[in-house]
Design goal:
Blueprint: E1 4-12, E2 16-19, H1 20-37, H2 39-43, H3 55-62, E3 66-69, H4 95-111, E4 120-124, H5 135-143, E5 148-152, H6 158-172, E6 177-185, E7 203-212, E8 220-230, E9 236-237, H7 254-257, E10 260-261, H8 263-284, E11 292-297, H9 302-313, H10 326-329, H11 336-343, E12 353-360, E13 364-373
Parallel strand pairs: 4-5, 4-6, 11-12
Antiparallel strand pairs: 1-7, 1-8, 2-3, 6-7, 8-13, 9-10, 12-13
Length: 374
């Protein structure tokens, strides 16, 4: 049995960002246009008028100030209201692979390793650019990695499920190392014309290099224990897979195909599930709340994270104990907890414990207990 260790992480951040103010201006222009075009039906009670959004509404609902995006122009155009992503030729690198490459190279550099040191690549993301060939295999080819690669999808929990998979393979001795990459183009599956969710997501890619502790070149985080759980629910759903549905007249029912959630039910059902999951995991591993120096939680909603942090620690988390990157990145699905870990882990001391946790559609929840060495 070998000891798995996280020795490097990397984050790709798009150049473009959209502030709440910019988003509200675009959405309200769309709402005004919709209401004007459908004035007669709205007056007759056949359609509901579109209400305006506001910066105050967005921040109160989510804690988000801005989000990074691959394409800004299309999202902010009231006549488009979705990212304009160029269809790449089959002989070009895919967008997801390109994003993942940037993050992967940064993770390898942080670990002091090269592509020759990678045995496997897991591309774990909530939305994959295509069904096949696997995006992970494309990334493997672009990096020049031997071994094998595969895709996996557990929605917002994909990163932690990927880390557990890699850690288990390293423990067993079947591989010596792996790159877990999480390219998330969340803006492409968001319905930007829906006031209740138009502000939620952003784009990003993260990568985590995990290897045998004995092969680490410097300080590392030992993966002490991992745990995953799932429970079926329709309260967070995205039907926009490779089987596309259409209306009887043949036109695409885009709202039905995009991201949808019942926010109140999610809040009510997911929070107890996640809090219990983390608490049980810690108890089974003999980790007390007082032992935990850092919580790197899934970045979906500030209120949710505040609730979970208080439940797990038994008190309100102090500044720095439960870092949030949500205000700058918005919800980046599986990548969120890894961004937080990447940006807020180097200050931990030798022997300190921390916990990475992601949760979301499925329902799914994954937790990774780590300990700093060096």
């Amino acid at each position: 049995m070998y000891t798995p260790a996280i020795t490097g992480t990397g984050v790709f951040t798009p150049e473009n960002s959209i502030s709440n103010a910019e988003l509200v201006t675009a959405f309200n222009a769309f709402a005004d246009k919709y209401n004007a075009e459908n004035a007669a039906q709205i007056e007759a009670g056949e359609l509901d008028a579109k209400a305006h959004s506001s910066e105050e509404f967005i921040f109160k609902a989510s804690g988000i100030n801005s989000r990074y995006v691959i394409d800004k122009k299309g999202i902010l155009d009231p006549n488009v209201m979705h990212p304009l992503l160029r269809q790449r030729a089959d002989d070009e690198p895919s967008l997801m692979a390109e994003m993942a490459m940037d993050a992967a190279q940064k993770a390898l550099k942080a670990a002091g390793k090269t592509a020759d040191d990678v045995d496997a690549i897991i591309c774990a993301a909530s939305n994959l650019e295509r069904a096949y060939p696997a995006v992970a295999i494309e990334i493997q080819d672009l990096l020049g990695v031997n071994g094998f690669a595969f895709d996996m999808n557990v929605a917002c929990s994909s990163a932690t499920f990927g880390l557990q998979t890699a850690a288990d393979m390293i423990r067993s001795g079947s591989i010596s190392s792996a790159l877990v990459v999480n390219p998330e183009i969340c803006t492409a599956h968001l319905e930007w014309r829906d006031r209740d969710c138009h502000f939620i997501f952003g784009d990003v890619a993260t990568a985590t290099f995990i290897e045998r502790a004995e092969d680490a070149n410097g300080p590392y985080f030992e993966v002490k224990s991992t745990r995953c759980a799932t429970e079926y629910s329709n309260n967070i759903r995205n039907n926009n897979g490779f089987l596309r549905r259409s209306r009887p007249d043949g036109t695409a029912d885009r709202r039905d195909m995009q991201f949808m959630q019942n926010g109140r039910k999610v809040f009510k059902e997911v929070l107890p599930m996640v809090s219990t999951h983390i608490g049980t995991h810690m108890k089974d591993e003999g980790i007390q709340a007082t032992d935990l120096k850092r919580l790197w939680l899934h970045q979906a909603n500030k209120s949710m994270n505040d609730f979970i942090g208080k439940k797990v620690l038994g008190r309100t988390p102090e500044a720095g104990e439960q870092p949030n990157i949500l205000q700058d990145y918005a919800n980046t699905s599986s990548a969120g907890s890894i961004i937080a870990f990447s940006q807020y882990s180097n200050d931990l001391s030798d022997g300190d414990y921390g916990l990475i946790c992601s949760f979301g559609a499925g329902y799914s929840v994954g937790s990774v207990i780590v300990q700093r060495h060096g």
